[in-house]
Amino acid sequence: xxxxxxxxxxxxxxxxxxxxxxxxxxxxxxxxxxxxxxxxxxxxxxxxxxxxxxxxxxxxxxxxxxxxxxxxxxxxxxxxxxxxxxxxxxxxxxxxxxxxxxxxxxxxxxxxxxxxxxxxxxxxxxxxxxxxxxxxxxxxxxxxxxxxxxxxxxxxxxxxxxxxxxxxxxxxxxxxxxxxxxxxxxxxxxxxxxxxxxxxxxxxxxxxxxxxxxxxxxxxxxxxxxxxxxxxxxxxxxxxxxxxxxxxxxxxxxxxxx
Length: 258
Fold this sequence. Notes:
By secondary structure, the protein is α+β, with helices and mostly antiparallel strands.
């Protein structure tokens, strides 16, 4: 029986994947333009685009609009452990300014963010979660978040005004452990977390901030931090390219009786 031929997309992707893994194309290096890949491999333009799409879905490369295609500085994906990332010891690890900074530090990279702090009316659904009047202002912290120089996430956190106004949450540097540690010091320790996840195309503004094309997909994670009394004191909307992140959660079920 004649050996089944490997599809061109998979064959070319496998060759590039090997070269990336072996360091022929090191992290951050430029890959051939799509047209150059098409000509060197003797394939259709769409085939060359599909090759890069396969590798981008695997988290091995990133496409920057107007600049080209590059090997991702993070080979694979950033692992977001939804179970343990907010535990005090994890979010304050080595003086980290919160869960995101700790995750990036574990990769041997440096986290940084451009943060815009404002007092504003939050979106309707956020106000409903916070239990505030639709006209009431909340403290908003809008961040463009990076691992070294690569933008990997945009996120906006909202806090009720009566909790956050006039506190360190209005400062650029929220200190060790980030907002959750400051809220605990203010008497609003979060004892439970609720998250909902959607997958959708990015808005035009999100795509521009993340440096991705509008046809890529992002995770939208709506994170809610609740006190022991059940009050929501933080709502954060995270927007993250699915090509750069993997998500995991773990919780016990059906625990045996004591």
